[in-house]
Amino acid sequence: MPRLAPFGLGALIVALAYAASRSGLNGFYLHILFMIGVNYLAAAGLNVLVGYAGQKSLGHAGLFAVGAYAAALGGTEWGLNPWVALAFAGAMGGLFGLVIAAPAVRVAGPSLAMVTIGFGIVMEKIATEWTDVFKGQAGVYGITPPSLFGSSFASQDWVWFVALLGVLTHLMLRSLLAGRFGRAFLAVQLAEPAAASVGISVRAAKTLAFVISAVTCALAGALVAQENQYFNSDFISFNLSVFLLVVVIFGGSGHIYGPLLGAVTLTLIDAWLARWPALQHFAYGGLLLFALYAMPKGLAGALQGLTDRLGWTAKKPAEPILAATATPVARPEPFETGPLIETRGLVKRYGGVVPTDHVSLTVTAGRVHALIGPNGAGKTTLLNLLSGHVAPDEGTILFRGRDITRAPAHAVAALGIARTFQNLRLFADMSVIDNVLVGAHLHIKAGFFASLVGTPGQAQAEARARTEAMALLDSLDLGDHAESPAQSLPYGLQRRLEMARALASWPKLLLLDEPAAGLNPQETHELGAVIKRIQATGVTILLIEHHMDLVMEVSDHVIVLDYGAKIAEGTPAAIKRDPRVIAAYLGTEAAVPELAGAS
Ligand SMILES: Nc1ncnc2c1ncn2[C@@H]1O[C@H](COP(=O)(O)OP(=O)(O)OP(=O)(O)O)[C@@H](O)[C@H]1O
Question: Which residue ranges run through the membrane (predicted)?
Answer without folding.
Answer: 29-50, 57-74, 80-100, 107-127, 158-177, 208-225, 237-258, 278-295
